[in-house]
Amino acid sequence: MKVIQYSLIGIIAFITLLWVAVNTNALATTYEIFAWRSLLLQYSGILALTVMSLGMLLAMRFTWLEDKLNGLDKVYRLHKWLGITTLVFVLLHWLLFKVPRWLVEAGLLIKPARAAKPPETLAIFNFFQSQRGLAEQIGEYAVYVLVALIAVALIKRFPYRYFLISHRWISLVYLALIIHAVVLMKYAYWTTVLGVIMVPMILLGIFAALISLFKRIGHTRKVVGEITAITYLDGVHMNAVTVQLKSQWSGHYAGQFAFVTFDQLEGAHPFSITSAWLDDGKLSFLIKALGDYTNTLKSSLKIGQSAVIEGPYGRFDFNSQSNRQIWIGGGIGITPFIARMKSLAKSPDGRVVDLFHTTTDTDQASLALLTQDAETAGVELHIMINSQEGYLTGEKLRAKIPDWKEADVWFCGPALFGETLRADLVLNGLDAHRFHQELFEMR
Asked: CB count, 10 Å around CB of 261?
């Protein structure tokens, strides 16, 4: 989480420093309210454009960004906060534009006469000058649409397919805001270090927007397969699905996930891979019936149905220096650990491992399979049924595992559950870097 926080703060601080550097004289000599309004309009607009451009880039699912931020889950968490930050700066920009006008119309503020500007020497800037009114209108309407689309993306009550559609439309709004920004940004900025940064950022943002609009995100990592097995586990409301791939898969390691499309109208959903890669073209997924779409899979999935798999993604890789590991899988968060146990059954690594599986729902068949996987992999399994033993706490974990301070902890499950456990263990002496948490949320 600190990487995400530092990245966001660093981006804002960097652009702020550049903006201050190119406006040093103006900031020192400006006293009139409308002159300050003009400065702050430029500042808020540049920040909004910067964070939105970076958010567009993060949505491309580039593997090099995964490496930098330690997993696509972290990439998408930063993408989410860039979206929220964009909304904040866009609204600030809109208010700076609108409120002084309202005050002038109400007679509470007097707008000074605008001094005549000398003619621009460059034809392109003359053209921009003639289009200012249109650019302002484009920007205003784009703000209204953007607020609505970001709301759809952030409010989880909207179905996931609307979230995907809203993101594609956001790309159109972004292109409209580019027109607004390029025409209205202070012309002198383009020849400064700020302009040197903004030009490639805008070009990368446009590139990302076009990839999104033409549905080409992740297209080089997509393979086609066919469903060969489906088992529904009633007690835990999960679909166990096996897909036989028909095209080349690069392989994956335990703990990774993929975007899976069973229905083109619904689009791709992220699911953890529960099978170890044996170079046989088979991938298995455990899919919890949690939402409007996954609740329909029990009746809609059929043997022989085609599936598009995009991936693999994620850096939840179980790599650590310690020979002692503690795994915690909350509910459907057990899936990466199943894959890891299947991998260890083929290639043991000599580590001592305790796996805690905490669950509200129970299914004897699935628990039997989990127990078998643990025994085959040499993993000590602790099954904790919440209704019988209560929720797993740091105190309970520490009581069961005496050498817990020497272990690396790998957690996948509800975010608040993981944060609570992490805070407890770190408070009692665990090195914070030993706690690895998958932030498996795409919105």
From this structure: 17
